[in-house]
Amino acid sequence: MSKLKVLYAALAAGAVPWGIVFLWTIGPGLSGDYSLTEENYLKFLRGAFIGSFGHVLFLGVPMGIFLIRRKWLRWWIFAIAGFVAASIPIGIYTWPYWYAGISTHSSPSINEAAVGTFVDGGLTAAAWWSWIGNMRFIGSFGVVGAVSGYAILWVFDDSDE
After folding, report:
1. Measured between alpha carbons, how far is 110 from 74 in angstroms, rounded to an integer?
2. CA–CA separation, 5 and 1 (whole Å)
3. How confident is the model at residue 84 (pLDDT cuts 50, 70, 90)?
4. For the chain, how far is it from start to end, CA to CA, in angstroms?
5. Does residue 35 sit in helix, strand or coil?
């Protein structure tokens, strides 16, 4: 497998999720209104660009090379690897126990009612569900990126070499 094809796959794996975020932010965006200023849009998109390509460079490419060398070239294996590559950093960054000492509770909204996430020094189900939700959301971008990278590898198949 050529290095150039792996480079194209890595570029696709970073560009497609970032493109989705870009298209999402030029519309109503996450909040359903146009609450972000133009400067904040650019900061958000810059952060998404760095995050997307950072995940690909530091986690996705090594996983992809490992999968290619093992000859595990199935789309669903790449999808699982993409989910894992995207979920690991956000899972570590948002690990609920990192923030246990900041306050006695946090309050994610469930049906617009505040719900305690720390009770008697332990995490509630709402805290764990919020953490899993963050990982699923970011992991879905990893799946999209990995499958788009796999598509590049599949389209430019050079198995006859």
Report:
1. 38
2. 7
3. very high
4. 8
5. coil
Please, which residues bridge with residue 110 across strands?
A: 113
What tokens appear for 152 in the block? 């590049």
Q: What is the pLDDT of residue 48?
A: 86
Higher local confidence (pLDDT), 125 or 134: 134
Three-state DSSP class for residue 141: helix
For 77-146, give the DSSP string. HHHHHHHHHHHHHHHHHT-GGGGTTT-S----EETTEE--SEETTEE-HHHHHHHHHHHHHHHHHHHHHH
The one-letter amino acid at 77: I
- CA distances, 34 to each of 1, 43, 47, 122, 130 (Å): 45, 15, 19, 37, 25
Q: For residues 45 and 25, is the Cβ–Cβ distance under 8 A?
A: yes
Residue 142 and residue 15 in contact, taking contact as beta carbons nearer than 8 Å: no
Whether residue 119 contacts residue 109, with contact meaning beta carbons closer than 8 Å, is answered with: no
Q: Give the H or E element holding residue 114.
A: strand 113-114
Q: How many CB atoms lie within 10 A of CB 14?
A: 23
Residue ranges per domain, the chain? Answer: 3-155
Residue type, 155: V
Half-sphere exposure of 123 (CA within 13 A, CB side): 15
